[in-house]
Amino acid sequence: METKRMELKESGVVFNEELHQYLLDGKELSGITGMIQRQLFPDEFEGVPEEMMMAAAEYGTDVHASIEDFDKHWINDGTQEVADYIEICKEHGLVHECSEYCVTDGKNWASMIDKVYRFDDTTFDIGDIKTYGTMTSDKLEKARWQLSIYAYLFELQNKKAKIGRLFIIHLRNKLKKDGTFDHIKDVIFVNRIPSDVCKELMDCDLRGEQFNNPYSIPENIRNQESEIRELIQTKNKVEERLSVLKSNILSEMEMLDVRSWFTDTMRLTRKLPGTRSSFDLQAFKKTHPDIDFEPYMKTSKVAGSLVISI
Hints:
Layout: E1 14-16, E2 21-24, E3 27-29, H1 32-40, H2 50-73, H3 80-92, E4 96-104, E5 110-118, E6 123-130, H4 137-157, E7 162-175, E8 181-189, H5 195-207, H6 219-222, H7 225-256, E9 260-262, E10 267-269, H8 281-287
Parallel strand pairs: 6-7
Antiparallel strand pairs: 1-2, 2-3, 4-5, 5-6, 7-8, 9-10
Helix pairs in contact: 1-4
C-alpha cells in the first residue's frame, strides 16, 4: 500500500518576536530554551560580559536570517556561512521542509524549530543552527536536550510523523584580531533523549521542582576532567614524538641495510615490507548464499570499554 505524503500541522500558536512570547488562545506558553537553561545549565553564562553575549546573539541572528532567505526564497547573499550551509545540505541529503516551525503541547509549552527537513512521506529530520566559537560539552548536551524535546513536541503535534535524525549545524566565519577567520562548517548528530524523560523534565519545571538529570556526570568524575584532559594531551604529544623518532630510525636502518640494533636496554628490529592476506567473509557469504555458516562461527565475549573525547 502506497504511503500518503503527510503535511505538517500548524500549531495555532501566535509568536511575538519582539517580546519572544508564545500565545495560544490568549494564554502565554513557556519556551523550551529558557526552561532547559534554568533546569540544567543555570551557570552557563556566568561571568560572560553582556556586550559579548549581545554580539554573539546578533551574529547568530544574522546567520539564521541569511540561511532562511536561502531556504525560503533561494536568495544567496554570498556569505561564507550560506555557502557552507549549501554544501552541508548537498553532502547530507537535506531537503528543506520548513524553517522556524512552531511546535506545542497545546497547553503549556511552545518553541520554534530552526530547520525541518523531509526524509520521506512521513519521516522528518530536525536541525538546529549554532554559531558558537567553541562547541563545549555543555553546549552540545544542551542542544541534545533542546532537539530531543523538539522531536517529542513535533511527534505530539503531528501524530503520524516520525523523527529520524537530530543534528546541530555548526556554522561560523568570524574575523579574528590577527586577520584570519574563525571558520567552522560541521554537522554534529546527537542521540535522542527518550520522550518520557523529556516530559518529566518539563513536568518538573511546571511543578516548580528541580529535575534530577539522569545523564548528569557525577561530581567526583567531573572533578577529574582537567587531569584526564592533561593526560590525554601529554599522551598525544608523546606518541607524536615517538612516531617521529621511529620514522627517522627506520629510514637510517633502511639506508644502511641493517636489520637490528642492540643497546644494553633496548633492541631495535626492522621489519621488512611485505603483504598481508585476509579472508573477506561478507563477500564469500554473498557469493555462496546457500552455505550455512553458523556451525563455523566463533563467538567470544568482548569486555566493555570507555572512549574519552576532548
